[in-house]
Amino acid sequence: MPAAVVLIAELVQWHASRHGWPTGGPERGARLVPGPQVVLVLGSPSRPGGQLHPMQRWRTDIAVRSMHPVHGRLLFTGGCTGAPGEPSEARVMADHAREVLGVPAQRIELEEAARSTWQNVQHCLDQLEQAGSIVIASAPTHAGRARRYLARLRPDLAQRLVPAADYRFGERSGWKAATLAYALARTAGRVLMPRIAAA
What we know:
The chain is of the alpha/beta class. The chain has one domain (30-169): Rossmann fold, CATH 3.40.50. It is built from 8 helices and 4 strands. It has helices spanning 3-18, 54-66, 89-99, 117-122, 125-129, 140-153, 155-158, 173-198, and strands spanning 37-41, 72-77, 108-111, 133-137. Strands 3-2-1-4 form a 4-stranded parallel sheet. The protein is globular. The N and C termini lie far apart (37 Å).
């Protein structure tokens, strides 16, 4: 991968991790309330057969290292996007967190119906109601989009957002670039499709 692409992806992901917060920025502090820290782990398609995908591993790694050692719990979200009978995205990631990363089962919750980032957030609002602080775990640009969705759906809950440990320089550079490319393509599609339809 060209060095320029890697550096651009690193810069954009770093910026997304630290800017564009509904509260005005993590440096201003969130409005916390009594309750546990809930880390919302956004879904991502599994490999065929319900096997862990590298993107799922990255998101789970981010979630676990962002988790408070005493008061934190993980909320995995994502339905089954594979063949019938395969485990949900949420379950595949949760199994990795429990079996490989050592997170106790009692600190893990699942939401297994969501099929999009919007639904990842929307379907978890009841669980987020109980949170004293909220962390969203994914690639920085993707997590930023989910934070914006939460601010649209529940501005009051968005005030409880705190940063994830989602950016490390040089970590999974290829997936950072891929995530950025997807975000750019998605934005371009939203701009171009109305113009094409109106032509």
